[in-house]
Each structure stands twice: as structure tokens, then as C-alpha cells.
Design brief:
- With 248 residues, the chain is mainly beta.
- It has 2 domains: 114 residues, Jelly Rolls (Sandwich); 101 residues, Jelly Rolls, CATH 2.60.120.
- 0% of the residues lie in helices and 49% in strands.
- The protein is built from no helices and 22 strands.
- A hairpin with an 8-residue loop joins β4 and β5.
- The protein binds (2S)-amino(carbamoylamino)ethanoic acid and manganese (II) ion.
- The site of manganese (II) ion has 4 residues, from loops.
Length: 248
């Protein structure tokens, strides 16, 4: 209950900081018995959708729109995934890439929470579309960003041109920071998983912490510095491997 009207959340033309105190839950087609919080969507100016699904035990999720690829990352609970005749169990930090038009079923085996990234898949001439990927983030080897051992990147999906999106985690030791202010054509959707610090977005510097969501439009200047005594970590989406000429 807010009696002050104050929030850290801010929505600007080329970025948004969305804090949990402002989240609104609603049903979405394809999710039965679950509630969704849409963080980032074309309505905001993005070319992808990012949302959280809160799943009570027994609730389910299925493919509901054609030509849309999906990446899911479990942040709490335990989620079953049936796809291609196989059954998987995704614990916290388990994830899956589900190609467009491939029927699948997610089911919560306990009170669960997951974050979903969706976008229209852009086929690449001469390349087969990617298949299903299922993984566990802690099992992915980390690599230093630009030689900085204090900043570890984990690529959750294969670095292959058939993928038109990447989802990574970035872990910052206390005091670590992005080596430069980035401006790039790729857009980002980001969920803070642990810790916090200061995020520069455009011409603003924001205090950020676990649970926050950030949208960065193409070319939004961005930089992050980690604060505190424990590592800071975020999950970050970006569009990759495609020319932007032609249909988006
Ligand atoms: O992959 C990236 O562009 C990443 N370094 N951006 C970011 O963390 N804001
Ligand atoms: Mn970036």
C-alpha cells in the first residue's frame, strides 16, 4: 500500500526501470490457473515481450501464438516441461528455449515463478531454425567479459547464427562494472537476480536491486556498477545475428 506515491519505477522513451511495487497481475491466453506480469512488450516500444508467470501448483502453460519463439527461466519452484515426447523438470535456474510453432506444455509441480521472453522468430536463409534447448544456468561455464575476471558472462544458448536471440547471465563481483558505456543496436530485457548497484540508462543513473526489470531500447546508453558485499547478477536478453533491414 503506497501512501506516498513514490516509486523507483520510471518509463522513458528509450528505457524503463520496472520495480516490483508497481507490478500488476493478469491472466494471459495459454496460461491456465496462472497469473502473468507483462514487463516489456510492443506497447512499450519493444520488439519482444518479457513477462513473469506466477504458477500455483497444477497450473499450466502452452504455446498459444504461432511463429513466436519462447525462452523460459525458472526463478522459483519446480516446473515440468513436455516437448518432443520428452519430459523435463526445471528447478530454479533451469531454462528452456522453445522454437516457434513447436507444441509444448509447462506445468508447475510446486508454487513456481518463471520469466518468459518471446519474439517472432526471424528465419535465416540457408540455416535450419534451432531446436529445443534445456539447461541449468549454474552448469554453464562462465567467461570473463573483455578479460575482466570480476565480471562473468554465461551464454545460456549456443552461439550459432540460427538463433536470433541470446539470453545470458552476468555476474559482477562487488565493485565490478561494465568496462564502458555501451550503445548498440541490440535491445535488452533484464531481470535482476541478485544484489544491486547503479544502472546508467540514457542520461539517468538509477539505484537497482534484485527483482527489478529493465528495458533498454536499441542505442540506449547503458552502464552498470555493482555495489554491496556480495555479487550482483542479472539475466539479460538481446536480439542477435540478424540485419535490421527488411521486416523486423
Ligand atoms: O551483452 C550486452 O550487451 C551487455 N554487456 N549489456 C549490458 O549488460 N547492459
Ligand atoms: Mn548491452
Amino acid at each position: 500500500m503506497s501512501l506516498t506515491g513514490f516509486t523507483r519505477a520510471r518509463v522513458a522513451a528509450n528505457h524503463a526501470l520496472l520495480t516490483p511495487d508497481t507490478f500488476i497481475r493478469a491472466p494471459l491466453p495459454g496460461w491456465t490457473g496462472a497469473l502473468c506480469i507483462v514487463h516489456i512488450s510492443p506497447e512499450l516500444g519493444a520488439r519482444f515481450k518479457m513477462y513473469t508467470v506466477e504458477m500455483p501448483p497444477g497450473s499450466t502453460g502452452e504455446m498459444s501464438i504461432l511463429d513466436i519463439e519462447r525462452f523460459i527461466y525458472v526463478t522459483a519452484g519446480q516446473v515440468g516441461l513436455e516437448v518432443n515426447g520428452a519430459r523435463h523438470t526445471l528447478p530454479p535456474h533451469g531454462y528452456a528455449y522453445l522454437p516457434a510453432n513447436l507444441p509444448h506444455r509447462l506445468s508447475a509441480q510446486s508454487e513456481s515463478r518463471l520469466v518468459v521472453f518471446e519474439k517472432p522468430y526471424r528465419a535465416l536463409a540457408g540455416a535450419e531454425p534451432p531446436g529445443v534447448v534445456v539447461g541449468l544456468e549454474p552448469e554453464v561455464p562462465g567467461q570473463p567479459l573483455m578479460g575482466d575476471e570480476a565480471l562473468e558472462v554465461r551464454l545460456l544458448l549456443p552461439d550459432h547464427p540460427s538463433f536470433d536471440l541470446a539470453v545470458n547471465t552476468m555476474t559482477f563481483a562487488p565493485g565490478a562494472h561494465l568496462p564502458m558505456v555501451e550503445t548498440h543496436v541490440m535491445e535488452h530485457g533484464l531481470l535482476f537476480l541478485e544484489g544491486g548497484g547503479v544502472y546508467r540508462l540514457g542520461d539517468h543513473w538509477y539505484p537497482v536491486q534484485a527483482g527489478d526489470v529493465i528495458w533498454m531500447a536499441s542505442y540506449c546508453p547503458q552502464w552498470f556498477g555493482a555495489l554491496g558485499k556480495s555479487p550482483s547478477k542479472y539475466l539479460i536478453y538481446k536480439d542477435v545475428n540478424r540485419h535490421s533491414l527488411g521486416p523486423l
